[in-house]
Amino acid sequence: MDSAVVLAEAAHAGFATHALSFDYGQRHALELEAARRVAEHLGAVEHRVLALDLRAIGGSALTSELAVPKGRREVEIGAGVPVTYVPARNTIFLSLALAWAEVLGAEDLFLGVNALDSSGYPDCRPAFLRAFEELANVATRAATEEGRRFRIHAPLLSMAKREIVLRAEELGIDLGLTHTCYDPIFAGTEGLACGRCDACLLRLRGFREAGRVDPLRYADPPAG
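^ thats the sequence. predicted structure below, dont judge the formating
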């Protein structure tokens, strides 16, 4: 959901958008299917999926057989770094996005990180984004020899999920095309959001507080 809104924000700001997704050994491919739908829906010039095997490193419930936490209370979500954190994931992803931007001649990188309603990930915080932007401008030929200046944009960084839901509505995004769940339940060929992982709980709270109905189908949505 956050990535879809960021893609729309970039297009709304007048950028020709190139969308990048990663098949990194995560628990399921539903988010990649959703990314393709969203990129088409929002008119991306191109959508690429890069394959890399972060399961070879492991260390996360998203890239190993560790269990995804379910049914955590709101006070627990964001208190410490959870087991769904993938080691250095956003550093790896942004590095590859930076490489593609350099080839494209682009200087603006957008990503859908959110510090306010997140699960406490350190690579979704302002300090990380500032540090990576500084790195990008000393680590590339485009910056050091061609005088280009890379900028990292995270327009949702300080927004609550409620605000993101409402912004999606303003931008005309069909959030039914998106996927958020860490650990979906498969009924036949259909993958239903579990309704109990941190990602589902944060998303559902955002819709509830925005006074909107989430268009996704859930296997086990929490009461209320």
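The mean pLDDT is 93.
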